[in-house]
Amino acid sequence: MQLNDFLEQSEQRAYQMALYASKNPDDALDIVQEAMMTLAQKYADKPSQEWGPLFQRILQSKIHDWYRRQNVRHRWRGLLPFGNKENRDDNPNSNPIDNVAEPKNTKPDDSLSQSRAMAILDEAVKNLPQRQQQAFLLRNWEGLSVEDTAAAMGCSQGSVKTHYSRAVHSLRTQLEEHI
Amino acid sequence: MTDEFEKRLQELSRQTFEKKLASLDVNTRNRLKASRQLALEKCRGKKKTTSTTVTFPAWLPPVSTATAFTSVALVVTSLWFQPEFKPQTLMTPLDDIALLSSTEELEFFENLDFYIWLEDEVNNDIKHDKDAS
Fold first, then answer.
1. For B84-119, what is each residue's pLDDT tens digit?
2. What architecture (CATH level 2) is domain A91-179?
3. Binary contact (A121, B16; C-beta < 8 A)
């Protein structure tokens, strides 16, 4: 497999994962670009079977870096009297379900309830804490094993299990009545 | 242990994510493609740079190190065993000062050997004349 083919297959999923984390399309694109650059520059010579785990590892690392940068930025903004304007409307106690737009078609059928459940899940995953979100996406979307998820996240298998179980617990409280 | 809710959650997640992928707009797809091309170009650039760099054979570093050590040893040995430096003249720094402060013409010092010889000759002649008388 050529590196171009691998990146073509992976880039959109990687973008979605970065978008879940950053909630900003431009930042998500930057994260994916950096991850692709790193893979192409440092690991292009590796066997193609290794690209998948390596790319996940790099991507998760870039997402983690992005979080750290954001934290530092927010800390500095919080110190300034005119800072933090963009987050003034954020309420940490708000329920993500309330933010989901009501579907236009209000006919109560199965497909509608399905799309509503998907919208709620989408919003709930966006609002998961970073590590729980990573664990959930890697396990459920990428279909990685606990071992591979731990390698991608750079933590122990026990941590992955904890993050994943907390994510599922959090989603259960928000979604149980919808699925 | 995976319960019923978790199974349904996994299925719903898969459907949600696939739907999101399918609904990705053209602009984002194009930007991702551009990022990929850029990454691949960097990769090609790196390979090109790597191929033009000079690669030395494996035997070169130890041989060059040994050569350097041998050269240093030779220089040290030759300096150690060279005969002690002996100045050919018995001039002292005071002689230099006398030379510099002298009012004589520089030509005099350049032909100093001649004048010393001349003085010896004159002295010899005087001595010879004394002996004769």
1. 666 555 666 777 777 777 777 777 777 888 888 988
2. Orthogonal Bundle (1.10)
3. yes
CB–CB of A98/A71 below 8 Å? Answer: no
Q: Map out the domains of chain A as residue ranges.
A: 1-89, 91-179
Residues in A touching B21 (Cβ below 8 Å): 12-13, 16
CA A120 to chain centre: 15
C-alpha to C-alpha distance for B46 and B41, rounded to whole angstroms: 8
Q: What is the pLDDT of residues A120-168, one digit of tens each?
A: 999 999 999 999 999 999 998 888 899 999 999 989 999 999 999 999 9
Q: Give me the residue from A13, A168, A179 closest to B12, CB to CB.
A: A179
Q: Domain residue spans in chain B?
A: 4-50, 100-133
Report CB contact under 8 Å: A140, B43.
Answer: no
State the ipTM, two decimals.
Answer: 0.74
Nearest to A57 by CA among A47, A69, A65, A68: A65
Tokens of B109: 């010092």
Minimum Cα–Cα distance from B31: chain A residue: A29
